[in-house]
Design a protein that fits this description.
This protein is an alpha+beta fold. It contains one helix and four strands. The chain is globular and about 40 Å long.
Length: 66
């Protein structure tokens, strides 16, 4: 039985669209949003006011826009 989670990886086609949905519609907070080279974006979010769970958004191609 799972009793805790600290990190979750979510594959998305478009990181910007995912960021806007989770932030604007679901109330998540951006934890890290950093460009790592020309074709990679490191994006993590968390439940508002919580450090217990981080969500990582990754596009299959590795590109920031998907």
């Amino acid at each position: 039985m799972i009793t805790k989670m600290s990190h979750v990886l979510i594959w998305v086609k478009d990181q910007q669209q995912a960021l806007e949905f989770y932030r604007d519609k679901l109330g998540f907070e951006v934890d890290t949003d950093a460009a790592m080279g020309p074709d990679f974006r490191w994006l993590t979010m968390r439940i508002k006011d919580s450090r217990a769970l981080k969500l990582f958004w990754r596009s299959p191609s590795g590109n920031a826009s998907g």
